[in-house]
Amino acid sequence: MDNRCRICDGMVKGAVDLGMQPRANAFPLPGETSDEFFFRLTVGMCDSCTMVQLLEDIPQEVRYHDGYPYHASGSAGHRRHFEGIAETFLEAELTGRDPFIAEIGSNDGVMLAKIAEAGVRHLGVEPSREVAELSMSRGVQVLPEFFDESTAERICAEHGHADVVFGANAIAHISHLASVLRGVERLLARDGVFVFEEPYLGSVVAQTAFDMLYDEHSFVFSVRAIQAAAERFGLELVRVEHVPLHGGSMRYTLARPGQRPVSPAVHEWRGLEDAGRLAEHATLEDFGRRARRIGDDLAGLLGDLRAKGHRVVGYGAPAKAATVTNYCGIGPDVVPFVCDSTPSKQGRVIAGTHIPVKSPKAFSDDYPDYALLFAWNHAEEIMAKERKFSERGGRWILYVPEVHIV
Ligand code: JHZ
Ligand code: ZN
Q1: Crossing angle, helix 319-328 and helix 281-307, to 10 degrees?
Q2: 46 CA to middle of ligand 2, Å?
Q3: Span from the CA of 45 to the centroid of ligand 2 (angstroms)
Q4: Is 69 inside a domain boundary?
Q5: Is 100 in the same domain as 173?
Q6: Residue ranges making up the domain that contains 27
Q7: Where is the C-methyltransferase domain (predicted)?
Q8: Which CATH number does the domain housing residue 394 bear?
């Protein structure tokens, strides 16, 4: 399957095929599974600008509906992380007279609530109603829309130029990224910055984290591809920082050309990417082969444990769980339920495989022999919380970077 690049119109060749997949955050009710939406999850790289992207695009209105269930403040670690970012902005960027910050995909206000608390002018752009309302209850101002060039113009007309435009786990979700970049270029103050952090292609590939691929991730960014995209739309990549969230993310800072010094880290990461052949089609194809092996190993292990009469339940219902369970054919016969602390996911089922989602109490009420950790990126926080499970002899199954038991 070949396609046109959403950034530069180059050719995108499919390299990783994870089969038919549902929308990762659909979480249908048990009675609502008869007409589920499926698409072919194929990811490829642009021959020209090297941007890694989904070949098939799912309309954004279908993905970010009113009841979008993911809450960005759902983990203590994430709350600390985003509050820290808000503090850094308040100290380093929002220091002029009457500064203004806009966030694209502000979710439940995990970052902007701190900005609102400080009394600084801000605007969250968030089309999913329930999470937007949550953030409003935390004092955050929200424009309940999708962000693109025309939204940016309206924001600019109403609020003036922005000192900071921010996005986290949202910018790589927007298939009309070209329009977003044009809009940001329009909205930014002369020395303003566009800061966004998203799962990093280098980390995804290094760990064979194939479950980071799903309908929402229209792109998986690399330093090289972001640098090229920035240049194309009149911006410059001036800073990159690797952050540990989601198994390895990259925080990119874009500015108007010449306005900010370019950090040596930009060149260093470009060098690392070149040395690791990250921009090569063969690297993605190899990633796809390793994903297949992990999928087979995991299905094999779960089959063995079942044959031996062991009980396995899932821990966490992240979006990733849809990819891995659908790819490996893991259903409620193998994993009877998963537990998750997000109320909006409980009582629902994982899309496609229909594994029920229950509250964490269902886990601690009757510990299984093994817990399959779908939220592997929160391993430390979850294992600390569930220490009793391990103390009583329970074992954790992880499948990134390979299938192993701890
Ligand atoms: P978590 C998210 O994906 C959301 P997901 C989004 N799709 C995106 O782009 C990527 O990040 C990058 C639960 N949990 O953070 C809460 C517990 O039950 O890995 C969550 O449902 N107990 C926008 O969905 C899930 O696990 C706990 O103690 O893959 C984790 O989801 C903790 C800490 C979490 O993101
Ligand atoms: Zn391209």
Answers
A1: 80
A2: 5
A3: 8
A4: no
A5: yes
A6: 2-54
A7: 244-401
A8: 3.40.50.720
Residues 158 and 220 in one domain: yes
- Work out the percent of the chain whose per-residue pLDDT is above 90: 99
The reply to whether 112 falls in a domain is yes
Q: Is residue 64 part of a domain?
A: no
Domain termination site, one of 194, 228, 260: 260
* Residues 313 and 362 both lie in one domain: yes
Is the CA virtual torsion 48, 50, 51, 54 positive or negative? positive
Number of domains the chain is built from:
3
Tens of pLDDT along 229-245? 999 999 999 999 999 99
Cα(72) to ligand 1 centroid in Å equals 8
- Which candidate, 320, 300, 120, places its Cα nearest to that of 217? 320
Which residues crowd ion ligand 2, with CB under 5 Å?
Answer: 5, 7-8, 10, 46, 48-49, 51
Model confidence at 135, in pLDDT bands (50, 70, 90)?
A: very high
pLDDT in tens, 158-173: 999 999 999 999 999 9
Does the CB atom of residue 64 touch ligand 1 within 6 A?
no
Which atom of ligand 1 is the closest one to the Cα of 377? Answer: 19
**269 lies in some domain:** no
152 and 27, same structural domain? Answer: no
Short-list 66, 63, 271, CA closest to 175: 63
